Amino acid sequence: MLKSTIYPEWDAPYFIGKEIKKIYCFPWCKGQPELENTVRFESRAKAEQAGYRPCKNCCSSLPLGSWEDNLHELTLFVPKEFSFAENMKYLSNAKNECLFYSKNQRIYRAISIEHETPVVEIRADHDNVIYIRFLGNTMPSRKWVRAAVARYVRDWFDLDTDLLPFYDLAKTDVLLQRAVNEFNGLRNIGIPDLFEAICWGIIGQQINLTFAYTLKRRLVEAFGRNVECEGEKYWIFPTPHEIAALTVEDLNGLRMTVKKCEYLIGVAQLMAEGKMTKELLLDCGDYKKAEKMLVKIRGIGPWTANYVLMRCLRIPSAFPIDDVGLHNAIKYLLGTEHKPTKEEILRLSTAWTNWESYATFYLWRFLY
Ligand SMILES: [Zn+2]
């Protein structure tokens, strides 16, 4: 029995098999290592005949029945614990965000999938579905690219997490009780692209959020690319290859510290060489090991590592415990004069096991 017969119309020009693990991937899978130890298959069926299993990262993460493909518009079915309005409030807060914008309860952005850059409008007329409409003539003609767009949005809004256990534990939690009441249906809005997530973590170190957005905009507008669609310009974050080829002098115009420029180029080089990927982090087994892999990289300390594990890898127990925003939110909720010490935070968070990441994200909301 071939599993691929479940998705007869799913197609890609080719599939990549990884010989050691015996798994196969769509060509757009972000976890691609360099080309050694890989083999090409012309179809899913061929890969499965050769004994390869579908990669969890790219092939099977759109659960059956979770989306509908109507060509110019995709429908995503969302869990009950989801409020588009609540997530919109979060997204509209980023005033100087350069990679998407929101207008009239809708979000607009370009999504880069291999060689295509569809521009989408994301909206929700009811709370149980999200619509993704392709603007202009950017509808991808291949189904797998449309599937990748659906996957990107599912990932961005973290629709695969079941929030019920979190809401249950929050009911009796001194800090989370109020958070889950006020922000019910909020998801941990992520940064699906690993390079973007790491860069954002590095850019934001030791500066305020407003200046961080300015620096990100300068970086993207200087080294990213853009597509024009229906009179608007949409920016795409630069790739590791693009930044890896630069020198610190090239980044001078951004007015970022020399150290940060070096860090960004260093990370870009690692990623361009395939030495740091989402898959490597996910495959290393546990959260502590993934954290270790990240802090080995120059420019990434425990805060940045946990920030990336939380916003990009969706590691539930990632916990940026040194985060100033987290400290301020706790201080505000407890009505104390002083910021909580690390010991106090550890004590307050003992019941959060495996939900530290969500707890942090919800507490941050009090800062806006
Ligand atoms: Zn894959």
Automatic annotation (TrEMBL):
The keyword DNA damage applies. Its EC number is 3.2.2.21. One of its GO terms (cellular component) is protein-DNA complex. Keywords: Activator, DNA damage, DNA repair, Hydrolase. GO terms for biological process: base-excision repair, AP site formation; DNA alkylation repair; nucleotide-excision repair; regulation of DNA-templated transcription. It holds the Pfam family HhH-GPD. It is an enzyme of class 3 (hydrolase). One of its GO terms (molecular function) is DNA-3-methyladenine glycosylase activity. The keyword Hydrolase applies. Residues 203-368 form the HhH-GPD domain. Belongs to the alkylbase DNA glycosidase AlkA family. PANTHER family: DNA-3-METHYLADENINE GLYCOSYLASE. This is DNA-3-methyladenine glycosylase II. It comes from Brevibacillus laterosporus (Bacillus laterosporus). The lineage of its organism: Bacteria, Bacillati, Bacillota, Bacilli, Bacillales.
